[in-house]
Amino acid sequence: MMSANGNTAELDFLGRPVIAITGLGLVSSLGRGVDDNWDALSSGRSGIHRIERFSTDSLRTTISGSVDFMGPGSETSTGLSYMMAEAAGSEAVRMAGLADDDFGGPLFLAAPPVEMEWQHRLALDAMDGATIEEAGYDRLLQIAHSRPDKAIYNLTQCSRISELLADRLGTRGLPITLSTACASGASAIQLGVEAIRRGETDRAIAIGTDGSITQESLIRFSLLSALSTNNEYPEKASKPFSKDREGFVMAEGAGALVLESLSAAKARGARILGVIHGCGERADDFHRTRSKPDGSPIIATIAAGIADAGMEPSDIDYINAHGTSTPENDRMEATGLAAVFGEALKTTPISSNKSMIGHTLTAAGAIEAVFSVLSIQNGLLPPTINYEVPDPAIELDTVPNKARPAEIATVLSNSFGFGGQNACLVIGREPRH
Known about the structure:
11-stranded mixed beta sheet; 2 domains; Peroxisomal Thiolase, Chain A, domain 1; 15 strands; about 425 residues; about 30% helix
């Protein structure tokens, strides 16, 4: 079989193009750029801190993994999400050896759901002049309609970030924006993989970004009893798989991957950083925020990802866990993994990046995919920090508290989200023959 550029195509076990990873980009509370993030993560350093961006008076949770160093333009969730996505995306494109303003392939973006922020609502309220008596959000929409403000309009459009990125990076075609909760970043990567497998493009860029920490978002997650309230010691608040875990820490960041068919990457002499062997995706219709008690959707997602890679559980060397540090999520993830891996799970290392960076929500799947590639490249298992009180109900090798050297050929990266969104990626060092 020949590829479009005339070189012999590199195919997987199903005759599909092998998906090469040729560029990576990162922004998180640990810093800006791949090198700074990996240095901090592999050292077991936490980026979680007290919130200083806004007043936390009367909030139950006053800590986060917010990104506070992006400068002017990052004052809104949309602005910050764009700036982090642009930083991660341009880093990934440059690493791939491509022009960061003429990428030449499609963009798949995972972005947070966008709505009118309080600063916009208050601005509209001030415009009212007591002419509209209806209270609430509908009233604000009426004011916005009667007094159009392009700046507010742009900040409340979910597609705005991808439109700006498409112009900045020079992507091709209509940019795709998706928001599938905590699975979003992995879902964006899956869309890029599938587009290349179908022969629609030789390359794609997948980016996950989330800069949505506000007072309102903290209140919403607090009402779900989902957030940690360990405010006194922020760096110790996220403790995945520990018996004393009590909630996740909301965080911000962006991760980007340049994906190419292996044949196209080789034809232009690109450095191959890793490969996407497989993607798994299944929905859970049990509850808006809870997993089905028997874990069957999580089990099916993990099994589908491994099967799509043409592998067995025994082929997985390391699991990059979803590992949010909530009581139910960690238990359900361990239950799902045990059903797929059996006794082998006790000796398969599994750790959670969220113990250090917090939960970056729509960006998590992309950020953790980048860290998975870096784990393979560096032969190092990142630790699960704050693992001081093991949970006897969850028997796992969590790589506790300190990174561990290891030979890693294949990583399973899990992303399970509110709303029943589940996605898994199987990432490898090199193509399988």
